[in-house]
Write a structure and sequence with these properties.
Length: 129
């Protein structure tokens, strides 16, 4: 009998982990990890330099404010990977996961704001002699 119970426990935790893996944004209601990671990538990979800190556009790159209404995810991903006339390709600079996160950020209904850049790490103090 005990054995059956622990089997059921193993099975249900495995199911839970599977659900979390399939749909993390739903599992962590209110937080959208991919969108948040994408916001940070947008800042750190140089997108913001041309498209503005919130994607509002600059003289170097167009506004991406309404891209979720006008471009489907695969088209956005392709633009990022291959670049365009004036936009450099980022295929070698972003991993597949990062690409997914950037697309999630650009397609988010309410785009999260990336936290301010952290101050550079202070080197650890030398060990006491
Ligand atoms: C050097 C400037 C520059 C950088 C850096 C840059 N872009 Fe662009 N981006 C552009 C320009 C200019 C266009 C318009 C099409 C073209 O000329 O390539 C564009 C177009 C786009 C488009 C399609 C929108 C449209 O209306 O054409 C998307 C989506 C996009 N960029 C996303 C990104 C993302 C995400 C990053 C960072 C990984 C990024 N861009 C980095 C300049 C840049």
């Amino acid at each position: 009998m005990m054995k059956n119970h622990s089997l059921a426990l193993v099975f249900s935790s495995a199911t839970l982990m599977l659900l979390l893996a399939i749909n993390p944004s739903r599992a962590f209601a209110g937080t959208k990890p991919n969108e948040q990671a994408g916001a940070v990538l947008f800042r750190d990979k140089g997108c913001a330099y041309c498209h503005g800190s919130t994607g509002q556009g600059t003289t170097r790159g167009p506004s991406l404010a309404n891209i979720r209404k006008t471009w489907k995810a695969p088209k956005i991903a392709e633009q990022i990977e291959k670049g365009g006339q004036k936009m450099p390709p980022f295929g070698d600079a972003v991993s597949n996961v990062e690409l997914t996160q950037l697309v999630a950020y650009l397609r988010a209904k309410h785009r999260p704001v990336a936290p301010p850049v952290a101050p550079s790490e202070v080197p650890p103090a030398a060990p006491a002699q």
